[in-house]
Specification:
The chain is mainly β. The protein has a single domain, classed as Roll (Pnp Oxidase, Chain A). The chain is built from 3 helices and 12 strands, in the order E-E-E-E-E-H-E-H-H-E-E-E-E-E-E. The chain starts with 13 loop residues before the first strand and ends in a 6-residue tail after the last strand.
């Protein structure tokens, strides 16, 4: 049996987030997975391909927002991941509603389960990607929404606790 080693990444379920970023002149949003570093400190890890528009904006801004996708945003997460921000304004093209946080601040995407503003602490180049470690500086949670997870190229609603 032939095994493709890159398939191993699809074995680990992960969060679905819309990473938003802005400078005073430009903005972008991308689909990403993220994870926390430890439960007792508000540090998060995301990886961003060096070739995409969001990467250059994060490098310039030094911050971004993690918008934890809700059930109703699974389709949006797919669409955002298929478009290129250097070519179009994804917010306008997809009708993404945001909470403006001021010039040069990453907007919060409305209807998300949670919005987490993050300041980049450090970054590491890893192949075609940059891994960012960032600290949460502000957040909002909409407890009426439910988050989604990505597993095996599909989205799943997180609903029931397993005991």
């Amino acid at each position: 049996m032939s095994v493709n080693l890159s398939d191993v990444t699809r074995l680990i379920p992960c969060s679905v987030a819309l990473l938003s970023v802005a400078t005073k002149e430009k903005r972008d949003v991308m689909t990403c997975g993220c994870m926390f570093v430890a439960e007792d400190q508000p540090f998060f890890i995301v990886s961003v391909a060096k070739r995409i528009f969001s990467h250059s904006l994060i490098e310039a801004a030094g911050e971004f927002a993690i918008n934890v996708a809700s059930e109703g945003q699974a389709g949006l997460a797919r669409k955002v991941g298929a478009l290129h921000g250097q070519e179009i304004d994804k917010y306008e093209k997809l009708g993404i509603q945001t909470e403006d946080r001021g010039p040069g601040k990453a907007p919060f995407v409305k209807s998300s389960f949670a919005n987490i503003a993050c300041k980049v602490l450090t970054s590491y180049p890893v192949g075609k990607y940059t891994v960012y470690i960032a600290e949460a500086t502000d957040f909002a949670v909409d407890s009426t929404q439910r988050p989604v997870a990505w597993y095996g190229d599909r989205y799943f609603a997180l609903k029931d606790e397993v005991r």
